[in-house]
Design brief:
Length: 299
């Protein structure tokens, strides 16, 4: 495989990216397509709790919601995964049992990434040994912004190896690396280092996921696929809270990468609050009435 020169200057056409995103947001969607799109978006969500006040009880409640999103609406899919700290992986795994919902765990000194490689690898192995199906790591943004791209590449490759059979999502924290040029460069580094998914944000920094940032990452995935035939997944995370915006992201996904990526195997939303808005929209399409937000659990 031919690796790109990570030190080479990358230039993204920001005006062109923003123009394309504005077109995705202007699309109209017919009712039947909208309902199918909303169900697809629901099935792509990673329900997440990553707070210092997390408890086993809160994690079990979230796992119950992951499987029973709204029992008065038969035929709804589950979400794709629940995402927790490594210490709660075993609790989530036991709660979800044979539901088919994956357990994802953040690792590598999330959210800052400020630790040694040895500790990051140990953190990753702990999560996997406790049953994590997926690991969400953060890159070392300080090293990236210093231009130490080989360090970032090697660290991702080491964490990928520590994941074993678990899939690896690599988080850039796009609100900190700032420019679209940097987003493209980080995407290439992570993809060539072995990422199964690339992910925008931790949800702890603003701005988090945006359509322009996501489009740049999707285009990096597309270009890599054209070169190698290897698919890589995408996860915008943080800041996507409405069903309408989720549908815009799915339109962008389909038109950039095609139908093969329209499943939770290759695309995720890291946005727990999104689930309730999607559920409210689905009930509106089904009954003609909006249900109160009080009808849906927050966790």
């Amino acid at each position: 495989m031919t690796y790109p020169d990570f030190n080479k200057t990358v230039t993204v056409d920001q005006v062109g990216i923003e123009e394309r995103c504005s077109r995705f947001q202007a699309r109209s969607i017919k009712k039947e397509t909208k309902v199918e799109g909303l169900k697809l978006a629901l099935n792509m969500i990673d329900l997440t709790t990553l707070e210092g006040k997390d408890t086993e009880g809160k994690v079990r409640q979230m796992c119950y919601k992951a499987v029973h999103l709204h029992d008065v609406y038969p035929g709804l899919p589950t979400v794709a995964a629940v995402c927790v700290y490594p210490t709660f992986v075993k609790t989530a795994k036991e709660a979800l049992k044979t539901s088919g919902v994956k357990v994802a765990s953040v690792a590598t000194a999330f959210p800052s990434g400020q630790s040694t490689r040895a500790i990051k690898i140990a953190d990753t192995k702990f999560a996997v040994e406790n049953g994590a199906d997926e690991v969400d790591m953060v890159i070392s943004r300080g090293e990236f912004l210093k231009g130490n791209y080989n360090f970032v590449f090697d660290e991702i490759a080491a964490i990928k190896e520590a994941c074993g059979k678990a899939r690896l999502k690599v988080i850039f924290e796009t609100g900190e690396i700032s420019t679209l040029d940097n987003v493209r460069k980080a995407s290439e580094i992570a993809i060539y280092a072995g990422a199964d998914f690339i992910k925008t944000s931790t949800g702890k920094i603003s701005p988090a996921a945006t359509m322009p940032v996501t489009l740049v990452m999707l285009e990096a995935i597309r270009d890599y696929y054209y070169q190698t035939g290897i698919m890589v997944g995408m996860k915008p995370a943080g800041g996507i809270s409405t069903a309408k915006s989720a549908l815009h992201y799915l339109i962008m996904l389909r038109e950039t990468l095609g139908n093969a990526w329209l499943s939770n195997e290759w695309f995720r939303f890291g946005a727990s609050s999104l689930a309730n808005d999607v559920l409210m929209q689905l009930m509106k399409e089904k009954t003609g009435l909006y249900q109160s937000a009080d009808y849906f659990s927050k966790d």
